[in-house]
Every structure is written in C-alpha cells, then in structure tokens.
Specification:
Layout: H1 4-24, H2 38-42, H3 54-65, H4 87-99, H5 110-127, E1 134-138, H6 141-156, H7 161-164, E2 171-176, H8 182-189, E3 197-200, H9 210-222, E4 226-233, H10 245-255, E5 258-262, E6 287-290, H11 292-295, E7 303-307, H12 310-317, H13 348-383, E8 387-391, E9 397-402, H14 410-426, E10 433-437, E11 440-446, H15 454-472
Parallel strand pairs: 2-3, 2-4, 4-5, 5-6
Antiparallel strand pairs: 1-7, 6-7, 8-9, 9-11, 10-11
Helix pairs in contact: 4-13, 5-13, 6-8, 6-12, 14-15
Length: 473
C-alpha cells in the first residue's frame, strides 16, 4: 500500500496523464474496438495475494483498461447525448473523493447540504424556473422521474400506499410514444404496472399530441381509472422533440394530475433566453428534472430535480430511525428525506466549481456555439441531394439519413443507413448512434461535447459523405 509521500508522487503523475489524455483524446479511436469477452479473458481469474505497486497497476490501466473505453470526452463523439466533463468538474471530483464525505443529513457535512441548496437556487435562476419550486440533486433523471412518480402516487392516495400497500387503486400514467424508456421502468418500479402506462400518439414533429392526451384521460375516467401523472418531454431521446407544455399544463390542471417534466438533456438550453419558450406554463408544473451531467460540463452523475410541493416529496421519503435523529431536524435540509437513497455524495461541489469557473456567460456561449454548429450542419445536409433531414432540428441534434435518388424502398434505405452507421463507427474516427422515426432508420449526430469545434464537425460530415460514396455509388 502507498503512503502519503508515494500518494503525492503518484497523484502528480496521474494528473499529468489526465491532462495529456484530455488534450489528445481526439487522436484515439472514439469507439472501443475490443471484441465481446476479450477484456474479461485478459484479466486474472483470481485477485493478487501480495501487494502490487501502483506503477504496475497504472501500467495495466493503460494497457488493459484504455483500449476497452469508448471515449465520451472525445470531440469526435456525436452519439446518444453528451456526457460532458470539464477541467473544473474533474478538479472538484478529485476533491470530493479526497474528502470522502457521506452527506446524508446536515449534521454529517453541513456545507454539503447548504451548498446544494444554494447551487440549486442558482440553477433555478439560470433556467428561469419559478420561485415556488425547490431543488435537490439526484443521481440521474431516471431516479428523479421515479421520485416524481412515487410522490404523485403517495399524494393521490393520501400517503396510504407507503403504509398499507396497494388496495384496488387503478392509477394511470401518460407520456408520448417518444418518451424515454426510463418512464416505463419507473412505472414498473413504483408498482403502478407497465400496462397502466398510456403512450400517447405524437404529431408530425414527434411531440406529444394534446388532443390524443385529453381523449386518453377522458376514456380512462369513464372506465373507472385514476389519472395519476403526465410526463412531458422537453427534448425526446430520439429527436429532441419539445412537447407543447402550455397545452399539457391546461389538461393536467383540469383533471388535477401531477405533471412531471423530463428535460434531462435539453434543459440546459434554458440558460439561453431564446429557448425559454420551451417552459411556457412552467408555473403549473409539479416537478422538473434536467441533467447538468449531460450538457452543462459537469461530469456524471448529477441530476437537478425541482418540485413545487416540498411537503409531498418529504412525506413520501422521510423515515427517521433513532440513529439519524438530530437536534437540527426541522431547521435545515436533510436531503436523505428528499429522494430514494440514504447515502449521498457531495455532488454540489463540482457544480459549484463549474458554474463559477465558466460563469453564466461562458456557459451560454458554449451552448450557443453548439447549437450554431448543428444549425450549419443541418444546412449542409439539406444542400446535399443524396441526404435527407428526417425531422427539423430543435437544438444541437441533427437527425438525417443517406437517401440516394435511385432508391425508394424504405427497407432497403434502412439497411443502407444501418450499414453506413456501422462502417462509420468502425473507423474509430467518429461515433454516432441511431433511432427510428416513422419507421425510418435515422442517423443521430449530437454536437455538444465540451471541446468540439467546427473543424471536428466538418471532418465528420466529410467522412460521412465519403463513406456513403465508397459503399453505395
């Protein structure tokens, strides 16, 4: 085991490696090229009996771990969604690990609780959320959404399900057909049953259709069901479609239904005044979540959850065994009562570092730059007669496909685009992902990585065109 002096030496070595990695990550194959099971087979079957030097361990890290990594911090990463880190975030995470605090209640680390309350208030101001909401940090949007479903369930049952279990309740939850899969998972975990999740049709732009939502709710009421919760998406996973929040809030208010907004990815754009239209009607929303660990340069995991009814949240999750009773109870925020886990990391520290080091203006500049790069890419794709935009761009995601004029069969086009994507990703020069929109195999190119530049985007677009020509012309 290493002592303090060796720790100091190794830490300097590690930080040098980290800085080099982040400077040069764009030169690495962005997607790992290992075969399934290859890493597992190369690792020892039994742990070492004797201590191994940190030099040996770190050599194996570089030899065995790095080749198996898909490099999310590469500016050539355009898949799924950003999972951004940044220098201030990494530095803060190092300090968090060093402090090693368990921040379940105020007494276990007062600054963790009070800094969390403050940075959540900062976010509320930055995003334009109403003062009536209070915020708490969760690990992921999946957890935050489950938290919302459980809170809605308890409030609707008069907080009896926590004590007595389900007794003939017939609750229904509503979302669009494009909503993230975590909604269905949350409905199952909350005991509501996935068959009670109503997936509402979307319009031509893949947004939840309020008319279909209203009809579904009325039909359920007629059949003796209880409309419990509506999930509105600000930025669907497939295409970043923005559900019409204002119209949905009217429906939720009319039927007294808990309304939760999932803005996990797109919510960061609310720091720009020109995108505040996305939350028109937010005053009527019961809960809201977005992930700074996606597009606000704060490394995973950190999800910002806001709720209007603080008492409903705490009554749902509060439990007070003798060993957790304190003299400060009721005077401070004990965040173990604001969500599912008892244990909590000091996540607020890295968010505090990021906001202060970038500044609001610096964050806005980064986000606008990403959106502008996506706008320019969309323009170039539209100008190319061999490619097609599948759905209008909303933010920094461009959805498109290769569509040679001579090919009209949709199945063939799907096969062509699937092969194109696989070929591109196998080059190691870019990494993209796909979705299906109206049955069309769609390439998704997300421009949001911390260090991405116009040069990276142009290089990727050139590679896409050249690869398509080589494969199919």
């Amino acid at each position: 085991m290493i002592d303090s002096n060796e720790f100091r030496k190794q830490a300097h070595h590690f930080v040098d490696w980290m800085a080099d990695y982040l400077e040069q990550v764009d030169k690495l194959p962005v997607k790992s090229r290992v075969n399934p099971g290859e890493i597992f087979q190369n690792l020892p079957d039994v742990p070492p009996d004797q201590p191994e030097s940190m030099n040996t361990v770190f050599e194996d890290f570089q030899k065995m771990i790095i080749p198996g990594m898909t490099h999310w911090q590469s500016p050539n990463f355009f898949a799924y969604f950003p999972a951004n880190s940044s220098y201030p975030s990494v530095l803060a995470e190092m300090l968090t690990a060093t402090l090693g605090a368990q921040c379940m209640i105020w007494d276990t680390s007062p600054v963790a609780a009070e800094l969390e309350e403050k940075v959540m208030n900062w976010l509320k101001i930055m995003l334009g959320l109403p003062d009536t909401m209070v915020g708490v940090i969760q690990d992921t949007a999946s957890t935050a959404t489950l938290t919302a479903l459980l809170s809605a369930r308890e409030r609707a049952s008069g907080y009896t399900i926590n004590s007595d279990g389900f007794i003939n309740q017939k609750y229904r939850v509503y979302c669009s057909t494009e909503t993230h899969s975590s909604i269905e998972k949350g409905v199952k975990i909350a005991g509501l049953g996935k068959n009670n999740l109503v997936k509402v049709n979307v319009d031509d732009n893949f947004r939840l259709d309020p008319h279909h939502l209203q009809n579904a709710i009325q039909e359920d009421i007629k059949n003796g069901m209880y409309p419990l919760c509506i999930i509105a998406s600000l930025g669907t996973t497939g295409s970043t479609a923005i559900d019409p929040l204002k119209e949905i809030t009217g429906i939720a208010a009319r039927h007294d239904i808990w309304l939760h907004v999932d803005a996990a990815f797109a919510g960061t754009a609310l720091i720009l005044d020109e995108y505040r239209w996305m939350i028109d009607g937010i005053e009527q929303v019961d809960s809201f979540v977005f992930n700074p660990h996606k597009w606000m340069f704060t490394n995973f995991d950190l999800s910002a959850y806001f709720v209007k009814d603080k008492d409903a949240l705490i009554r749902t999750f509060s439990i007070n065994p003798e060993y957790l009773k304190t003299a400060t109870a009721g005077k401070v925020n004990d965040y173990r009562d604001w969500g599912i886990p008892l244990g909590r990391r000091f996540r607020a520290l890295k968010l505090w570092f990021v906001i202060r080091n970038f500044g609001v203006k610096g964050l806005q500049e980064k986000i606008r730059n990403h959106i502008e790069m996506a706008r320019e890419l969309e323009k170039q794709i539209k100008e190319n007669q061999h490619f097609e935009i599948i759905t209008p761009r909303t933010l920094n995601l461009v959805c498109f496909r290769y569509k040679p004029k001579r090919i009209t069969d949709e199945n063939e086009l799907n096969q062509i685009n699937e092969r194109l994507l696989q070929t591109l990703n196998n080059t190691g020069k870019v990494f993209m992902s796909h979705t299906k929109l109206n049955g069309k195999y769609t390439l998704r190119m997300v421009i949001g990585q911390t260090q991405v530049s116009v040069q990276h985007v142009n290089k990727a677009w050139k590679l896409i065109q050249e690869t398509a020509i080589q494969l199919f012309q």
